[in-house]
Amino acid sequence: MSETTAQTEIRSPTDPESPPFLQIRNITKRFGAFVAVDNVSLDIHQGELFCLLGGSGSGKSTLLRMLSGFETPSSGQILIAGKDQAGVPPYKRDTNMMFQSYALFPHMTVEKNIAYGLKREGVPRAEIATRVTDMLSLVKLNGFAARKPNQLSGGQRQRVALARSLIKRPKLLLLDEPLGALDKKLREETQFELIKIQETLGVTFVVVTHDQEEAMTLSTRMGVMADGKLVQVGAPHEIYEYPRSRFVAEFIGSVNIFEGRIEQDGEDHAVIGSPDAGMGIYLSHGITGTLGQEVAVAVRPEKIRIGKSPMEDLPNTTQGTVDEVAYMGNLSVFHVRLETGKIISVSQSNLVRSPEDAITWGDRVTLGWDGAASVVVPS
Amino acid sequence: MTPPPLLAQGLQGFLNGARRIGLTGRGLVIAIPLVWLIVFFLIPFLVVGKLSLSEAAIALPPYSPLMEWIDGVLSIHLNFNNFLFLADDSLYLNAYVESAKIAAVSTFFTLLIAYPMAYMIARAPDHRRHLLLMLVVLPFWTSFLLRVYAWIGFLKGNGVINTLLIWLGITQEPLRMLQTDFAVYIGIVYTYLPFMILPLYATLVKLDKDYLEASADLGARPAMTFLTVTLPLSLPGVIAGCMLVFIPAVGEYVIPALLGGPDTLMIGRVLWNEFFANRDWPVASAVAIVMLVVLLVPIMVLRRAQAAEEGATP
Ligand SMILES: Nc1ncnc2c1ncn2[C@@H]1O[C@H](COP(=O)(O)OP(=O)(O)O)[C@@H](O)[C@H]1O
Ligand SMILES: [Mg+2]
User: Fold this and answer.
1) What's the alpha-carbon Rg for chain B, to the nearest Å?
2) Which of A27, A28, A31, A174 to mutate for ligand 1's pocket (most ligand atoms within 8 Å of CB)?
């Protein structure tokens, strides 16, 4: 792997040259007339932690359930390690699933729950015992073996469910909202544990989540789903910085959108005339599109500079009045009303505890951003 | 809907009365079933208990009093001979054993038939499920006696089943089915089936589909999933259903009387004979008391086990 990719991607155990471990080809799932998953194609490589991100009802779980064999695709093909999975029942697949509800067997102890998969395989009893013990220490549950699920906290149950789904050493682990039932603080801690376990075992993870921060934190690559379609696939920073549609731009993080028309489109720059912004927005790169075409320009709040003095070094500047200030601790978010009436949100790190020239309500301010700060998406 | 004024007044009066003797809300809720049990269970039980300790007599009522007050002497006669007599005559022991056997076998077959039915109803789509449940309780709309009589029509020598068998050429002679233990089994299984289906259904319908999928996902075939997940999780329903069938089946009188033969020996019939044929009320009462005690033992053991189970998993 080259130096440059190692720099941009922090975790990248993937060898893009090898054939994909999981191949999803034109998968569609219909429930009656309703299309839950719409012509999805996706390749996932060995060792990836892939997140499927999407709103509620976007078809994430349905896609996952087709991978584990609980739903049959209406059309399309799923290959795991090159083998077509059509007609293979769940109990014969090399995948394991961690359920959103955890689905821990209430009548079995933690130990029995974790051992369940190995017992079905007919693994010798002594080996089961050592593997269960190992798994218990991996998920830090030593000493809980004899408890029943209803004697555990939410976080402990989550870890039992994870242990149970990992005990058979699946090549592919499917996790449906694995942290959904945990409170915020526990969820953030568990995210890092999950990553550590995934890296330790080298198992390919496909994680379903509706939480974009979680997807960003967890994944080596992610796919955004909407209305059953996979709308964009890429590394978290690609999806954040280069959303390919207005939907993705707005779904991931917050963003300012300016409607406009392409006025200039050169080799190394472009200008979008935007009545919204009351100016021509300058971009330091060429775009695809015809002159006059309607497009939208997306600018993230943290990429906009806010200040009281003019910003001659920036190609895009405009003025407005501060409508609202939200103090969030690590940063402040300003809502600035432009002369056109458009409200722009700008965030700024709070570098100093109480700056003397702090921007407050009603201040006249200048906003500015760089030519590389914005992206153009189809309107 | 407003209750008619008379009923409302009566209820109000009752509530006022209850309050006067120190009963309100919660207390009343507990008191009502308690009063019910005292009036309809405890008092009759004590009456029967008292009867079982008296002596048979040719009189009206046909037993001697327990206590006598003669010339300033209070004499209490506790006659345990009735119980000793039960132990003496093997007829009674046989009847108990036979009843328990018939009830146990019937319970087993009821369970065998009810489980798949309950399972299917619980897994059926919503709209169909309500219809199926309706069908399960539909027989209750006609008299139990009538339904047992209907079985006579099916089972007798020239009944529906025999006619069909002969017409199909499976047998030449009509099979003797009526007045056999076989007919009694059929009657009990048929009659008590809903009592088994309903508690089974209640536990199976609550069974989360995720458990079954988790089991399959971990490599269990459907049959294995049934044995390791479905069956253990539906055990409370199995136990409740078996109790609801076994207990009344032991004391069943009507079914063996109508469908059974002369050699079908069940404790209900013995009881009937003692009361009405022999007019030996004290022995009949002793039979009833022993039956109650015999049935109480398994119930207590079971409750103890359930309590222990719940205690272990709070
Ligand atoms: N068994 C089913 N029958 C009918 N509709 C279903 C079924 N399973 C899921 N759906 C529908 O498919 C859509 C996608 O569901 P799902 O994959 O669970 O979404 P999510 O992205 O929230 O996990 C939803 O609108 C849901 O109602
Ligand atoms: Mg879901």
Assistant:
1) 25
2) A31
A278 phi/psi in degrees, rounded to 5: 75, 25
The ranges assigned to domains in chain B are 5-76, 89-279
Written out in words, the top-level CATH class of the domain with range B89-279 is: mainly alpha
Its pTM stands at 0.82
DSSP line for A319-362: EEEEEEEEE-SSEEEEEEEETTS-EEEEEEE--SSS-TT---TT
Domains of chain A, earliest start first: 22-247 (3.40.50.300), 254-378 (2.40.50.100)
Tokens 């054993």 found at = B97
> Which residue lies with its CA nearest to atom 6 of ligand 1?
A31
Average pLDDT, chain B: 87
Confidence of residue B130 (pLDDT cuts 50, 70, 90): very high
pLDDT in tens, A215-228: 999 999 999 999 99
A122 touches chain B (CB under 8 A): no
Report which residue type is found at B86.
Answer: L
Interface contact flag, A99 B210, Cβ < 8 Å? yes
Which one of the ligands is nearest to A177 CA? 2
A1 has a pLDDT exceeding 90: no
**How many angstroms separate the CA atoms of A278 and A343, rounded?**
12
What is the full DSSP assignment across A240-256?
HHS-SSHHHHHHSS--E
Other Cβ atoms within 10 Å of A368 Cβ, number: 18
Closest-CA residue of B relative to A163 is B218
Among B228, B232, B240, CA closest to B201:
B240
CA distance A31 to A65: 14
Search chain A and give the residue with CA nearest B235.
Answer: A107
Residue partners of A57: CB distance under 8 A and separation at least 6: none
- Strand-strand pairing, A364-369 and A221-226: unpaired
Ligand 1 contacts (CB < 6 A) are A 31, 34, 36, 54, 56-62
